[in-house]
Specification:
17 strands, alpha+beta, DUF8094 domain-containing protein, transmembrane, DUF8094, 25% strand, single chain, transmembrane helix, elongated, eight-stranded mixed sheet, five-stranded antiparallel sheet
């Protein structure tokens, strides 16, 4: 009977092991689900919609081919369609009933504000048609002929596919998602089968042992008739153990070693996680707000969601990193064309003038460099239209030698990149007020907003009046004087020192004018705002009675004006970039200067 049980155990073990191995071989499901489609309308762009990317759970592996060059980028769906604008594109969607990708030709809708040039005859730079390098993309890829990449994007993200923006987009598109092909019972079956084989072998050994014992002579056996005594056989010679040449072998141990090797091999083969059952993952995610009933039994309306921030932190880090590298090269090579691709307004004015001065006088100090440092503050505007603005602060760990810089970047339209409109060195004692997280962003404050202690558009002229008149200015009590180094360097005393250096043959006058930069104001957590403005300070040196000869005393003025002496006079314009924290209306706090940057941008002979 023991042998029967042993045979049954061996058969059951073989079936369990065979079925466990079959789950990982014959019956194994594919490791991914793939859908493919072909674009045949000849459009320059194709867009894989967010719904198609989310057809199945997990990361998305894109394979694109069918053109000489392949470009793939992903970004927010609204941003992707805004970049395409009014052009036709192939819209790749998902049909859940047919479980297949669909392709249809769609016509885009122009998004954003188009700024017409003030002079109709002015030359307008054409917008780029190649999507490569756009600041709107969260990430981009390119390759010749064929490209395969894996991304993991949430809902609300779409993929843009193109060749070079003018040639037809790649025609072959495939999207694959990983599938769960784990076999949680393969491991238990293999290991269980191995254990069953071991049990069967033990039963078999017990059966053999019982059989051997049953064949031994039994005691108390009845004696038969007495047989005659046989002759005595000679006793064989005793062999000593030392005379045995071969080692003793235990048949039992050898037989045990075989199943042990088998069991260990089978156990090790089932150690992978996909061979074993796993606990169900805990529920994760963010709770979704639902409407709550009111006292009358009706539901309260759910407030409209605020627009998303203009950029994400990784997106801005990539943008600013490229700007920092380009600025360093342009500053070193005095490359005006290169710097104009990433700067605008007063930030560009100061650098272009600095390049011109340094071309004439190599010893002149360059404009303050942008530090290659982490972004310690990111405040994007909440908006789904254009233009868009973003405020960020670059702060190095070595603040003693590397100044902290605040950048105000503006994107005029979807196909234009972010340009630095303000590059302002922060005061050493500046404390940036609390702002919303970068994932939420801040609301843009209108320049004429009346809910601030001072309208943003009035802050620049009011502060310039303080620099010009000091305590005599009507705006003096509204601004914090402590920690304001601009008053020391550019205020009344500094201006009087310049006048004192003039001879009696000339006079000097100071006036102010509005700068070239737009007023940028973003809301802070205290209902105030961070305001960036630009002011031009104009210094006019005039000869007395028109008889004296005036010579530019500084190299920068001589370099920009191109004159060595004049009897008419010289007018020099200094651009001042200013950053303030303006409290809310009714607050007892004063307006605080957070930082400033000044530079000579023009010097001309008076007419």
């Amino acid at each position: 009977m023991r042998f029967v049980f042993a045979i049954l155990a061996f058969v059951l073990a073989a079936l369990m092991i065979a079925f466990g191995i079959a789950q990982r071989t014959v019956f194994l499901e594919p490791a991914s689900t793939s859908l493919s489609t072909t674009v045949e309308d000849g459009s320059a762009f194709a867009v894989i919609d967010s719904t198609a990317l989310a057809a199945f759970s997990g990361s998305q592996t894109l394979t694109v081919s069918g053109s000489d060059s392949v470009f793939v980028a992903y970004g927010r769906t609204d941003d992707v369609k805004a970049w395409i604008g009014a052009e036709d594109y192939a819209d790749v969607g998902f049909d859940s009933d047919a479980n297949a990708l669909t392709v249809s030709t769609a016509t885009g809708t122009a998004t954003g504000t188009v700024t017409e040039p003030a002079d109709e005859a002015a030359e307008v730079t054409p917008l780029p048609t190649n999507p490569a390098g756009s600041d709107l993309w969260l990430e981009e890829f390119s390759a010749p002929e064929s490209l395969t990449t894996t991304i993991n994007v949430p809902a609300g993200i779409s993929v843009l596919i193109a060749s070079d923006g003018t040639a037809p987009a790649p025609t072959e598109i495939s999207v694959a998602w990983p599938t769960d092909n784990s076999t949680p019972w393969a491991g238990p079956l293999i290991v269980g089968g191995a254990l069953m084989a071991l049990i069967g072998f033990v039963i078999y050994l017990l059966g053999l042992l019982h059989l051997r014992r049953s064949r031994r002579p039994r005691r108390n056996v009845s004696r038969g008739p007495r047989m005659p005594r046989l002759p005595r056989v000679p006793r064989p010679k005793t062999i000593k153990a030392s005379e045995i040449t071969g080692p003793r072998r235990s048949i039992g141990k050898s037989m045990i070693a075989v199943p042990l090797v088998l069991v260990s091999g089978l156990v090790l083969s089932g150690c992978s996680p996909e061979f074993w059952p796993s606990a169900a993952p805990e529920a994760t995610g963010t709770a979704t707000a639902t409407a709550s009933p009111t006292a009358e039994g009706t539901e309260e309306p759910v407030a409209d969601e605020a627009p998303e921030p203009a950029v994400t932190v990784p997106q801005l880090e990539r943008i600013v990193g490229g700007i920092v590298n380009l600025t360093a090269e342009a500053d070193a090579n005095l490359d005006a064309a290169a710097i104009a691709t990433r700067f605008t307004g007063p930030a560009l004015e100061q650098r272009l003038a600095n390049y011109k001065i340094r071309t004439a006088d190599a010893s002149f100090a360059p404009t303050t460099a942008l530090p290659d440092a982490p972004l310690t503050l990111t405040l994007p505007q909440q908006t789904d239209t254009w233009p868009r603005v973003v405020t960020t602060v670059l702060q190095s760990a070595d603040e003693a030698s590397v100044p902290t810089m605040a950048l105000i970047l503006k994107q005029e339209s979807p196909r234009e990149n972010y340009l630095v409109e303000y590059a302002i060195q922060l005061e050493a004692s500046a404390k940036v007020p609390g702002v919303a997280p970068a994932t939420i962003g801040a609301v843009a404050i209108a320049p004429d907003n009346k809910f601030m202690s001072m309208a943003p558009e009035a802050v620049g002229p009011a502060y310039a009046d303080i620099l010009l008149n000091g305590e005599a200015s009507a705006s003096y009590p509204l601004f914090e004087a402590e920690g304001d180094t601009a008053r020391t360097q550019l205020g009344v005393e500094a201006k009087q020192a310049q006048k004192d250096k003039l001879e009696d043959t000339a006079t000097m006058e100071f006036t102010n004018a509005v700068g070239s930069g737009d007023v940028v104001a973003l809301a802070t957590n205290d209902s105030g705002s961070i305001v960036a403005v630009s002011v031009n300070e104009i210094t006019t040196v005039t000869a007395v009675n028109g008889k004296a000869t005036i010579e530019p005393t500084s190299g920068p003025s001589r370099a920009l004006s191109g004159i060595d002496k004049t009897s008419k006079g010289i007018q020099s314009t200094y651009s001042e970039q200013l950053l303030f924290h303006v409290p809310a209306a009714g607050s007892t706090d004063k307006i605080v200067l957070l930082g400033f940057s000044q530079g000579l941008i023009s010097s001309v002979e008076l007419p």
